[in-house]
Specification:
The structure holds 2 protein chains of 2 kinds.
Chain A (H helix, E strand, L loop, with lengths): L15 E4 L5 E6 L4 E8 L13 H10 L8 H8 L7 E4 L4 E8 L3 H13 L5 H21 L2 H13 L13 H6 L2 H11 L5 E7 L5 H9 L22 E6 L5 E9 L8 H12 L7 H8 L7 E4 L21 E10 L4 H18 L3 H18 L3 H14 L4 H11 L2 H11 L6 E6 L2 H9 L14 H10 L11 E5 L7
Parallel strand pairs in A: 2-6, 7-11, 7-12
Antiparallel strand pairs in A: 1-2, 3-5, 3-6, 4-5, 8-10, 8-11, 9-10
Chain B lengths: L10 E5 L18 E5 L5 E6 L5 E8 L14 H8 L9 H10 L3 E6 L4 E8 L3 H14 L4 H18 L3 H13 L13 H6 L4 H11 L5 E7 L3 H12 L21 E6 L7 E7 L9 H13 L4 H9 L3 E7 L8 E8 L5 H17 L4 H18 L3 H15 L3 H12 L2 H11 L5 E7 L6
Parallel strand pairs in B: 3-7, 8-12
Antiparallel strand pairs in B: 1-2, 2-3, 4-6, 4-7, 5-6, 9-11, 9-12, 10-11
Helix pairs in contact in B: 1-4, 3-8, 9-14, 9-15, 11-15
Classes of the chains: A alpha+beta, B alpha+beta.
Chain lengths: ~500, ~450
């Protein structure tokens, strides 16, 4: 939910935010850099998809960003953008659809004119639509479902946790729904949701002083509208752990599991859970407990991480992309592919570390170190002007100061007791949705529901203390009965 | 340019260019002042102060990649070392190393390519002394016992496994194994699966690999960001100056000229759209002649989004949902390749023919001069736009440093680019993009028409 404008004005020293009486909001980070970034964020996304048309928000955004305008064909746009070496990149999540472009200030006028027309004056051509829809279906069926087991598991986890909820479908939609969509559907979504009330204009770099006013004026041509206001219920609870195994002919087993949390950026326990998550499994760094115990000590796989905010494409990105802000988040653990023989053990090892953290909490030394890490690492997250701008827009969305200032202030007040209390309050391991991508789904179901241990196989001798701990891990109760395990053929995922 | 000496053997090269407000202002394309210095032991230090405040990006480039894996059965060791380097020393155990990085708020990782391995860390500027000190320690005193070594080999197998879900990885493997028969570019940086599986038994060889390549003469340190060159040099002298030079020089087998067109097909076990890759044996990277720039321009003019073939197959006929190409830019002769993802299996033969026909036409007819000028503008802006933060600058520099050990290679390469003529492109295409040099690999859920 967008906060009242009055609460959005405090964005730290560098950023400023302004809004005309009824116009779009502007987040501005002017500097002397010859590079200019334009981020146009519409606070609408797949949460606003009509129930019968999952994927409509994403397809509408893709159509605008990857097609011709009223006056130019897509070929003409590509040709015009080419000498400037820039593109309009569009991505859509549950609550935000973002158009981002970066240009050298030499080309700002020409680039901005094209970007503006792509959003304000789309061409809606049938051949563009056919291509963009095909690309989306292929992204769903081939790139995600066929070629990327890890992302498939993560996305399916969200769908399961939010079943029956506005977040409960893949942003790209389903193959069946996409097949039934028309240009008219996209135009309808565009008219209703591409409004001034939903727009945040973000500008960074060495643009002329008059540029912000020009962009604001141009985009005031959009209907005034009302902010998207989809009601988000609490995700449906589950009484015990539930496992979905996606059956697929693949070499190893990819795991993701998690549960919904009532904490997002700006909430009182956000910093506490961020510290806990970073300690447990900071994304793609070697510092986390999961990485240390599962990969470094036991060699189970390539890495293991934890999250309290949505982080798509984590296998490609070292830092999260901004402008995928959400009103509801989940806690998630990502176990990178493991050999099938160790799949049960790896799941139990991650659950073991989670349990230990919840029960015993963090030590003062670990807390101090993680707090220091996060207060400095925030500089890395905003190392470029484009990223700094993205974070500033997210801060506007959440109604918090500039992210670095917000986080440092929250961390400075935090105690280890705050973290350990928040852990007990928000995390647990007996109400988890678990997702595996595995070839022999029946064998995995049997292994995890039979009550038998799932021992690990090593290629090298391990210290006795590790072997002793393994004996506990291999028998760790998962609370899974046969009826708690669902097997889904991969061909059915994201189809209907 | 100025030359001074810390010792008679040490040299400092200061190359200055004003940061241009326009990407087309006269002068060199690499817009930053940098200081390039050689320590007596052969270690090279390149320091690039930038206006991006508070942050420092450190890249340490080791001139050893999968190209250096010359013994049979030992593929994948450069990449394995990328992993082992995080396993600690007597002074900094793996745990302490991670704790120090954490307290510096550092983002740290590494990657391996055919030609080099890069270790990169981005952190707050006040932590530069301890990060440089820790890095000096692990580059000189890595201490991995056999048990830790074996455990890490399983993490590498895990990486192989997570990659194996992607058919493009398989396409890449088979293309290399088909197009090369002698040179080490025959295997990927991951290595052959059988070699990866056998790694646990190669502990002694791993020590040999470290002793060969983790030496100052193979290493370049690149420091970019909120730094002063003199202070950086002083820190590097303190901990890296004592590093002992080695004497190993690998005998990389030369690939004989290709004797005719080659093909291969991959049956993929699960549903996917089919792929076709058309590749040609190309030259090694050149910054002293226009070949590399010309082949880069050729790849872009033939396969970028504005190219006629892309417009035909992807936008108009919609037979493909992706079409990409890459020119050769490695230390030794590499492949010029184009990859298409085809929507219908029955279109694979026709798409293959059209890609080949477009390449042949390119070699027979000079490109329009205006189109070439638009490309030159694109390439220049693309490079400038990439310089959006200190980490990105360091990464761009690292890729050229891996080839020539100096950012000046960037300027030389782009100078050739700026001077390219339609005749240069035609000449280079005729030389390399020939039927004799061609390899075609297809991948589909079941065999495509051969």
């Amino acid at each position: 939910m967008i906060r009242p404008l009055a609460s959005l004005l405090c964005l730290g020293l560098a950023a400023s935010m302004a809004a005309s009486a009824a116009g779009p909001r502007v987040v501005a980070l002017p500097s002397k850099s010859p590079l200019v970034t334009i981020r146009l964020v519409f606070t609408t996304g797949s949460a606003s998809d009509p129930a019968a048309k999952p994927g409509l928000a994403n397809l509408t955004g893709a159509m605008l960003g990857e097609s011709g305008t009223r006056d130019l064909t897509y070929k003409q746009i590509v040709d015009a953008l080419y000498p400037m070496a820039t593109t309009v990149h569009v991505y859509s999540d549950k609550e935000m659809t973002t158009f981002v472009g970066q240009t050298h200030v030499d080309n700002l006028d020409r680039f901005y004119g094209l970007m503006r027309d792509m959003i304000l004056h789309p061409g809606w051509r049938d051949d563009d639509f056919a291509r963009v829809r095909d690309n989306t279906v292929n992204a769903l069926r081939v790139s995600l479902r066929g070629n990327n087991d890890e992302e498939l598991g993560k996305e399916e986890l969200y769908n399961l946790i939010y079943s029956g909820h506005p977040y409960g479908h893949e942003n790209l939609g389903t193959a069946a729904a996409l097949a039934g969509m028309t240009v008219g559907d996209l135009q309808g979504f565009y008219k209703a949701h591409y409004t001034q009330a939903n727009l945040i204009i973000g500008l960074a770099g060495g643009y002329p002083a008059s540029f912000a006013a020009r962009v604001t004026k141009d985009f005031s041509a959009l209907p005034a509208g009302q902010p998207d206001s989809v009601t988000l219920p609490a995700p449906a609870g589950i009484a015990q752990n539930q496992l979905t195994i996606v059956a697929k002919d693949t070499r190893s087993v990819a795991w993701s599991f998690g549960l919904p949390i009532e904490v997002k950026r700006g909430d009182p326990d956000f910093a506490s859970l961020l510290v806990a998550q970073s300690y447990l499994g900071q994304h793609r760094l070697s510092s986390g407990v999961l990485f240390s115990r599962m990969r470094e000590l036991r060699g189970l796989n390539y890495g293991d991480y934890a999250y309290i905010e949505y982080f798509p494409r984590g296998m490609f990105a070292l830092e999260p992309e901004p402008n995928i802000a959400r009103r509801q988040q989940i806690f998630q653990i990502w176990i990178r592919p493991v050999e099938p023989a160790n799949a049960g053990f790896a799941l139990r090892a991650a659950a073991f570390e989670l349990n230990k953290l919840i029960e015993k909490g963090m030590s003062q030394a670990d807390f101090d170190r993680t707090k220091t890490f996060l207060s400095k690492y925030v500089n890395v997250l905003t190392k470029s002007k484009s990223e700094e701008l993205g974070y500033a827009i997210d801060s506007a969305y959440y109604g918090i100061p500039a992210y670095g200032d917000y986080l440092k202030a929250a961390l400075s007040k935090l105690t280890v007791d705050d973290v350990n209390r928040a852990l007990k309050k928000h995390l647990r391991s007996d109400r988890l949705q678990l997702v595996a991508i595995a070839k022999d789904a029946e064998a995995l179901r049997t292994a995890l529901t039979s009550g038998d241990p799932t021992p690990v196989t090593y290629v090298t001798a391990k210290p006795q203390e590790v072997l002793d701990e393994d004996k506990i891990i291999e028998r760790l109760p998962l609370g899974l009965r046969a009826e708690d395990v669902k097997i889904v053929p991969v061909e059915e995922v994201f189809e209907k | 340019m100025r030359l001074t000496g810390f010792t008679p053997a040490a040299s400092v090269l200061c190359l200055c260019a004003a940061v241009a407000s326009s990407a087309f202002a006269a002068g060199k394309i690499f817009p930053y002042n940098y200081v390039q210095e050689d320590l007596p032991n052969g270690l090279r230090l390149i320091t690039i102060p930038t206006d991006y405040r508070n942050i420092v990006a450190l890249y340490i480039v080791v001139g050893a990649g999968s190209r250096n894996e010359v013994e049979p059965g030992k593929s994948g060791f450069a990449h394995l070392f990328e992993h082992l380097m995080f396993r600690g020393t007597a002074e900094y155990s793996a745990e302490r190393y991670q704790q120090e990085l954490s307290s510096a708020g550092a983002a740290s990782n590494a990657f391996t390519t055919s030609d080099f391995t890069a270790y990169h860390t981005t952190f707050s500027k006040e932590d530069l002394p301890r990060i440089l000190s820790m890095e000096a320690d692990r580059f000189q005193h890595l201490s991995v016992d056999e048990a830790a070594y074996k455990t890490e080999t399983r993490a590498v197998l895990g990486e192989f496994n997570k990659n194996s879900a992607n058919p493009q990885q398989k396409l890449y493997e088979v293309m290399r194994a088909t197009a090369f028969r002698a040179h080490t570019y025959r295997h990927t940086t991951m290595g052959f699966l059988e070699d990866v599986e056998a790694m646990p038994n190669e502990y002694e060889y791993s020590r040999e690999f470290y002793s060969r390549y983790y030496r100052p003469e193979y290493t370049t340190i690149i420091v970019v960001g909120d730094v002063e060159a003199k202070k950086v040099r002083s820190l590097v002298d303190e901990r890296w100056g004592v590093w002992k030079r080695g004497d190993y020089k690998p005998q990389i087998p030369a690939e004989p000229p290709q004797d005719g067109p080659r093909t291969a097909n991959i049956d993929w076990p699960s549903p996917t759209l089919p792929f076709v890759e058309v590749a040609y044996r190309g030259p090694a990277f050149a910054d002293e002649s226009p070949e590399t720039a010309a082949l880069d321009a050729t790849a872009r003019l033939l396969f970028d989004h504005s190219a006629p073939l892309y417009q035909k197959l992807v936008i108009n006929e919609q037979k493909l949902d992706s079409l990409n190409a890459g020119p050769p830019d490695n230390l030794d002769p590499e492949l010029f390749g184009a990859i298409a993802r085809v929507k219908k299996e029955s279109d694979v033969p026709q798409v293959t023919k059209e890609i080949i026909a477009a390449i042949e036409e390119f070699a027979s007819k000079p490109v329009d001069a205006k189109t070439l000028e638009a490309l030159k503008q694109h390439v220049r802006y693309e490079f400038v736009l990439r310089m959006s933060n200190s980490e990105a600058i360091a990464e761009s520099v690292a890729r050229f440093v891996a080839l020539r050990r100096t950012p000046e290679a960037i300027n030389r390469y782009f100078d050739f680019y700026a001077k390219l003529t339609p005749q240069d492109l035609q000449r280079v295409a005729r030389q390399y993009l020939t039927e004799k040099n061609r390899t075609v690999v297809t991948l589909a859920t079941k065999a495509v028409t051969k």
